[in-house]
């Protein structure tokens, strides 16, 4: 069937490669999330956030006249639609198949975990050859991966600290429980200091904050 000139510049013409497939997936997700609200409404939301994605860009993306999306656009569109940026990339959670890299389909949740730093992508030897697969395996324990892992651990420890501190300061907490909680807080502080030390050794950005000031008596 012969395509018209108009159809050749819309999503009626399927994506030609992995990059265009990503653009189509993002476009469809944006269209679904904005629902009955106009493209101008979404453009106004992005403008209010400080980086304008114009109505024409949104329309061209949704129709397929534009077949790419920048990282800046993904972030601000996600913020305007009140979803995580990764959801625009991987909307078919948890099990919908998606190509994590060209030609490598995985469940969407696996792609999301890699994108968010929870796991490292390891290509199969059959796909990239034994030598390159070994290089990727070595990268799995790289400093960058370790910084992500330690940062996540640090956040979890700090969340525990906040909860325990609230309990310790509560007037309804009995002396016995307060003593136990105080010991737990001390142990978490020690672990936090170790994690911060590891992060600093890896040249990560670690900033003092009110939690630390509180321990120091500030």
Automatic annotation (TrEMBL):
Single GO MF annotation: DNA binding
Domain of life according to the entry: Bacteria
Domain HTH cro/C1-type: 53-88
Protein name as it appears in the record: HTH cro/C1-type domain-containing protein
Source organism of this protein record: Mycolicibacter engbaekii
Taxonomy of the source species: Bacteria, Bacillati, Actinomycetota, Actinomycetes, Mycobacteriales
């Amino acid at each position: 069937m012969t395509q018209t000139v108009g159809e050749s510049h819309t999503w009626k013409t399927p994506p030609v490669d992995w990059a265009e497939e990503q653009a189509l997936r993002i476009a469809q997700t944006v269209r679904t999330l904005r629902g009955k609200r106009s493209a101008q409404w979404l453009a106004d939301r992005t403008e209010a956030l400080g980086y304008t994605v114009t109505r024409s860009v949104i329309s061209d993306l949704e129709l397929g006249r534009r077949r790419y999306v920048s990282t800046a656009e993904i972030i601000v569109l996600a913020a305007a639609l009140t979803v995580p940026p990764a959801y625009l990339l991987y909307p078919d959670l948890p099990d919908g198949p998606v190509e994590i890299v060209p030609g490598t389909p995985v469940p969407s949740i696996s792609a999301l975990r890699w994108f968010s730093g929870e796991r490292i992508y390891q290509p199969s030897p059959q796909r990239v050859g034994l030598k390159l697969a070994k290089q990727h395996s070595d990268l799995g324990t790289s400093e960058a991966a370790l910084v992500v892992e330690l940062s996540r651990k640090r956040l979890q420890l700090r969340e525990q600290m906040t909860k325990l501190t609230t309990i310790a300061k509560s007037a309804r907490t009995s002396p016995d429980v307060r003593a136990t909680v105080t010991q737990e807080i001390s142990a978490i502080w020690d672990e936090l200091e170790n994690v911060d030390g590891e992060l600093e050794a890896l040249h990560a950005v670690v900033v003092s904050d009110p939690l630390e000031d509180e321990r120091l008596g500030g």
